[in-house]
Amino acid sequence: MRAIAGLFGKSPFFPLQKHMAKVAQCVDKIPDIFSALKHDKWNKVEKLSDEISKLEHEADLTKNEIRNQLPKSLFLPIEREVLLYMLTLQDSIADTAEDIAILFTMKQTTPPKDLIKEFEKFLGKNMSCFNTAHKIIQELHELFQSSFGGVEAESVKAMTDDVAYKEHEADLIQRDILKVLLNSENELSYASFHLWMRILESIAKISDLSEKLANSIRTTLERR
To answer: pLDDT by residue for the chain (224 residues), tens digit each?
Structure first.
């Protein structure tokens, strides 16, 4: 109890930021694992997948520490339920990163050649969406110090708009990839087709969850 209270004493949002840093370590390895897969480096794919799973477990331990030791009586600048909701969203992002990593190890298959560039673009857009959401979380202490107003609040609002726009762009790219995948159904085995469909959906969750996380901050700002 004292340990987590001490963290809150340093910054009301420090535990959330600490957890998000662990989540980012998971997500940041996704492009590496896709690059290894693209170049048929299957041993590296397995190694990176194991690393992501270990990092996700570390993020889980941090999440559980915060949930179990967060004092109900501790003064917070936002509702306790909102903070826990944000923590749950961050946890879901780490879970999704692990899901993607595991999917990449399910079968030694590469995406259709005419999809590689679009897939990289799609992955990059989801990563960018997450990175902006991560930056918002990093700004929470400064936002608190400004009493959730002023220039800092306007900056955070602009970043939440950016996350929403990037998520929309990711959706558009996903639709294009989906069309190509469906038209390639006869060129891929059923297992490969189904696997890439699942990978596509899982990667899309990164930007979807990032947008929800950003929106939870925006909603908090608008209520004050």
So the answer is: 344 444 445 556 888 999 999 999 999 999 999 999 999 999 999 999 999 999 999 999 999 998 887 766 555 667 778 889 999 999 999 999 999 999 999 998 888 888 899 999 999 999 999 999 999 999 887 776 666 667 777 888 899 999 999 999 999 999 999 998 888 877 788 898 899 999 999 999 999 999 999 999 888 777 66
What is the 3-state secondary structure of 109-154? CCCCHHHHHHHHHHHHHHHHHHHHHHHHHHCHHHHHHCCCCHHHHH
What does R_g of the chain's alpha carbons equal in angstroms?
A: 19
Q: Are 160 and 136 in contact (CB under 8 A)?
A: yes
Angle of CA points 128, 109, 168, to nearest 5°: 25
Q: Which of 97, 103, 106 is nearest to 54 (CA)?
A: 97
70: left (phi over 0), alpha (psi -120 to 50) or beta: beta
Cα separation, 101 vs 210, whole angstroms: 18
Query: Is the CB of residue 156 less than 8 Å from the CB of residue 139?
Result: yes
Centre a 10 Å sphere on the Cβ of residue 37 and count the other Cβ atoms it contains.
20
